[in-house]
Amino acid sequence: MKNKRSLLWVLSMVLILSVVLAACSGGNKGSNSSGSPSGSPSSSPSAEPSASAPPSESAPDENREPVTLKFISWKDTYNPLYELFHQKYPWITIEQIPVNGQPIMEIIATLEAAGTPADVTEIDQDLVAFDQNGLVEDLTPYIDKDPILQSVSLPQGFYDTMSLNGKKLAVPMVDVPMWILVNKDLLAKNGLEMPPNDWTYDDFRDIAKKLTNVDAGEYGLTTQAEFQMRLLSTKAIADGHAANLQYMNEDLTQSVMHTPDVINDVKWLQEFVTKDGSLQNNAAATAQGDVTREFINGKTGFAIGGDWVLPKLKENAKFEWDVLPFPRGKVSQPGYTIYGPLALLAGSKHKEEAFLWLSFQFTKEAQMWKIDQGANASVIDPELTAYYEQTPMWKGKNIAAVQIAKENAVIQPGVTIPGWGEYNWNNILNDVIFGEGDINEIIPLTEAWNKKTLELRAALK
């Protein structure tokens, strides 16, 4: 009852807001922004749709009525994947509902109120909140009976970051890997060779200093928050200072960001700015016209990149670039990956068809398509492993680094951690590294969040 009341409250607020906005704006429409692709398949309109039942034996394609699945997503580059899905299930079409900067819960409520509910969504905040509001289905019964997911080999703990209280609330839409982007021309200019894949964090810092030439406006690192967002917490794992990304402990119940070892890791990256001069802070980058904020400008040696940067680099970079895995620390060489959660909405009228879109992500054709875009394969399969050598995406590049990054990847946590949206690690560290933030503030802020997340976790039991 609590979940239903929460959803009704969201719906009523959206309806009231829409009336007010209509009166104030005279019918002006909201701005457009890009959406990230995930697909939500819809089912044939029958008198009694199979709303909650797990997928059963499919009827012959010729007996199917056309279904359009509404899929709430950010990306606008997945049309070829939608077409691959349509070829496999000809009666189902994916209609992407762009996010346009709105909270996804609002989009869900608006579509529900209009009588045109969405079927599948990507998740933009804690999955806990979606579950508490009764917005997402437990995928366990679907997964247990799905022939595709039951036939593939998945990494150990594959569902862990998207499960809560015994329920599988989402599957990864895409496994987004991270690498160190390398400007090979800048290396050559400074008499340096491409580092080996087992390079260390000491190598990383030393090379960054050697690439820095202030008079030429060249710096070792690109001025991007990704270095503290991705590299810094990966280094903490590599040196044995944290068990998980974002400085989380082994069971993801507490942050260790306030411990002396992690504070020293923060000081280590801060010294790239304050001591080495190989990384510009925000003020210095702005003063020089923001040239060092973009790796593609060719003025920086290293950057953090994922699949989203590859198309632009391949098309527009005027220099030779490549990739390296994240460096090796004192105890290990972890990488960094993001699982984009893909959930089946409880309000869908086409749940069986919608789940087909989820399970389709793990077919060989979908996995290969994602490798072609620079993403990781989620499925463990020799043919997919070999495909990294064949895809045009990595032709002429350091394919071994791409494979190492996949094999060593640690998954970004968060979506099922209570109060994750209030864990302010990102803003704190951005201020410390790139601004004038006080490093001493890390301790009390971390202690306060640790107390809050335990309270929230206890309330969920």
Automatic annotation (TrEMBL):
<dbReference type="InterPro" id="IPR050490">
    <property type="entry name" value="Bact_solute-bd_prot1"/>
</dbReference>
<feature type="region of interest" description="Disordered">
    <location>
        <begin position="28"/>
        <end position="64"/>
    </location>
</feature>
<feature type="signal peptide">
    <location>
        <begin position="1"/>
        <end position="22"/>
    </location>
</feature>
<keyword id="KW-0732">Signal</keyword>
<dbReference type="InterPro" id="IPR006059">
    <property type="entry name" value="SBP"/>
</dbReference>
<protein>
    <submittedName>
        <fullName>Extracellular solute-binding protein</fullName>
    </submittedName>
</protein>
<feature type="compositionally biased region" description="Low complexity">
    <location>
        <begin position="30"/>
        <end position="58"/>
    </location>
</feature>
<keyword id="KW-0813">Transport</keyword>
<comment type="similarity">
    <text>Belongs to the bacterial solute-binding protein 1 family.</text>
</comment>
<dbReference type="GO" id="GO:0030313">
    <property type="term" value="C:cell envelope"/>
</dbReference>
<dbReference type="Pfam" id="PF01547">
    <property type="entry name" value="SBP_bac_1"/>
</dbReference>
